[in-house]
From TrEMBL:
One of the record's GO molecular function terms: methyltransferase activity
CDD domains on file: AdoMet_MTases
One GO biological process term: methylation
Name of the protein this chain belongs to: Methyltransferase
Keywords recorded for this protein, A-Z: Methyltransferase, Transferase
Domain Methyltransferase: 60-149
Pfam families: Methyltransf_25
InterPro entries xref list: Methyltransf_25, SAM-dependent_MTases_sf
Length: 237
């Protein structure tokens, strides 16, 4: 799962016992050599769907990390793109890898943008926000978009209870809750708190019109449901 250039087990343990921000600062130089980086298959499937709505003007990558989302924004956005993240380490890697972008350090729950973007995306970040924090996150994205702007992100669907993946993700979330109950600072990362219906309800409350489309190219669970959906949230014009 890890490249030889990726982090050691010891480094991962130190990261896991840190805060989210400091943990990603530590992991940043080796992050792109881990399975935590958004796979190219997801980026490609997202680009394919969004290309039917574009082109767009300016793009925003929320919780951009080392900049994987640029592979979606660069071909779709004619006026450039901006990435925002609270990890200085991750932003440093993004600046080196993608010097054509604009990189801003800020908490995604309090982004300093207003009506400046036509497309916003985020990849693999929702698990870092507790459900109670999503309204602030989505309100900030809504504020950052121009009227009619689109916020898009893939969400992995919960596997059926008969699958190994169901129990692996459940076990991970339970382990993280135990870790956060006994160790401070917390490291928030949960796989099962961002189901499409709950996320869609929060987006609607923030002022978006929401739909979700299956990313069929990414496969299906054993019960025939898609492994991943793309949430499309449109700010009212």
């Amino acid at each position: 799962m890890f490249s030889p250039r990726g982090p050691s087990l010891g480094e991962l343990c130190v990261q896991a016992l840190s805060s989210v921000e400091h943990g990603y600062d530590l992991l940043a130089p080796k992050f792109d050599y881990t399975p935590f980086r958004t796979p190219s298959s997801i980026l490609g499937a997202t680009t394919e769907v969004l290309s039917t709505f574009g082109p767009f003007g300016r793009g925003l990558d929320v919780c951009c990390g080392t900049g994987a989302g640029t592979l979606v924004l660069r071909p779709l956005c004619t006026r450039g793109f901006t990435g925002v993240d609270f990890s200085a380490g991750m932003l440093g890697q993004a600046r080196v890898a993608h010097p054509d972008g604009t990189w801003v350090r800020a908490d995604a729950r309090a982004m300093p943008f207003a009506a400046g973007f036509d497309l916003a995306v985020t990849f693999g970040a929702l698990g870092h926000f507790l459900p109670a924090e999503r309204p602030a996150l989505f309100a900030g994205v809504h504020r950052a978009l121009r009227p009619g702007g689109l916020f898009a992100f893939p969400v992995g669907t919960l596997p059926p209870a008969t699958s190994v993946a169901h129990w692996v993700t459940l076990g991970f979330d339970v382990a993280m809750r135990v870790r956060n109950a006994v160790w401070k600072p917390p490291f928030v990362m949960y796989y099962r708190t961002g189901a499409v219906p709950a996320v869609s309800a929060d987006l609607a409350a923030a002022g978006f019109t929401v739909e979700a489309v299956a990313l069929t190219g990414l496969g299906e669970h054993s019960d025939g449901s898609p492994r991943c959906r793309l949430v499309l949230a449109r700010k009212h014009a």
